[in-house]
Design brief:
This protein is an alpha+beta fold. The chain has helices at residues 3-8, 25-35, 50-59, 63-71; strands at residues 77-79, 87-94, 102-111, 114-119, 122-126, 129-135. The chain has one domain (15-135). Strands 1-6-2-3-4-5 form a 6-stranded antiparallel beta sheet, with helices on one face.
Length: 138
Amino acid sequence: MDIHHFLALPHRFRWGGAGGDDCLTFPASWVEKVTGIDPADEFRGTYSTREEAQRILDSHAGNLALMERQLAPVKAKRIQDPDTGDIGLIKAMTGETFEDQAEALIGAIRFGPLWACIHPGGVRAIKAEFIAAWRLQA
């Protein structure tokens, strides 16, 4: 499956990645399509709120450390110049309403000059600063 077909699939936001995806399971679902290995498998369905997700992140030293750990089994290579299909940790605005908008670190997939990420309203491609990026070994 290529990135265009993946992004065209019906995606819905669900904390915990069961019956949908959240901001870290979304790129993990792409990794699974490319490699056959789901780096979020051990966490899917184990949480259902933002607070529970944050506890998992905190217990693994944060987003970056968790992504490094989970991408290691698929031999994803850390890179400096991301291209379409690469996985990234980006800075983006999150929140379901204007009142709860906040900048956060979230997982995303590089799509041309943009980053595709999931939001309660669906998949969005946004311009964002990346903190780290990885290339999958297909």
